[in-house]
Amino acid sequence: xxxxxxxxxxxxxxxxxxxxxxxxxxxxxxxxxxxxxxxxxxxxxxxxxxxxxxxxxxxxxxxxxxxxxxxxxxxxxxxxxxxxxxxxxxxxxxxxxxxxxxxxxxxxxxxxxxxxxxxxxxxxxxxxxxxxxxxxxxxxxxxxxxxxxxxxxxxxxxxxxxxxxxxxxxxxxxxxxxxxxxxxxxxxxxxxxxxxxxxxxxxxxxxxxxxxxxxxxxxxxxxxxxxxxxxxxxxxxxxxxxxxxxxxxxxxx
Length: 253
Fold this sequence. Notes:
59% of the residues lie in helices and 14% in strands. The chain is α+β, with helices and mostly antiparallel strands. It has a 5-stranded antiparallel sheet. Strands 2-3 form a two-stranded antiparallel ribbon. The longest helix is centred in the last third of the chain and has 33 residues, at 156-188. It is globular.
């Protein structure tokens, strides 16, 4: 009896292994399903790839497209944002996200910020943390080269060029290093989320019986500030904030 059970277990394990699909097979299956307008199957296969621990900007873009075709705007937007996290300047992702955002019911004003701060934030978000880190290393190498020119050159013009080159590269190195750290922090400790519920009440305190302050709808992007039990404190782009049930949002992780 034990031998029979042992052999059966081996056969079952072999069968499961044989039917398990590789990420490459799932990718082909998902793309084929999408082309054939079987968006539910496409979503299932793309999500299976993600469940195996794989991610890429193209995976999230395709997954967002499949969700959008199914009319699931919130899921589409959260995956477009995940794609942007990996490829901030991808034009296809930015375009599709823009289209999806037109379906979001909430039209929230943005709190005005000083133009320099806004420009710096836009510049920082244009590259990934790895790209900024690479640029910082280039600036550091250029700084060392300029320092050598300053120290070893005999001519006054070359020494001046080396001196100002060192100052310029130090400034660029500091800026790119700060941007790399900021982008890395966002990547490691995400605090943005997307509303998934058709209508999600935002409350004055983390209590279901507390007063509703306002209501947010599917696809709206929020910033998560704090957590308490089943509630998350969120703030929206116009500065209003409150508490919302965790089940009503999905983090852009």
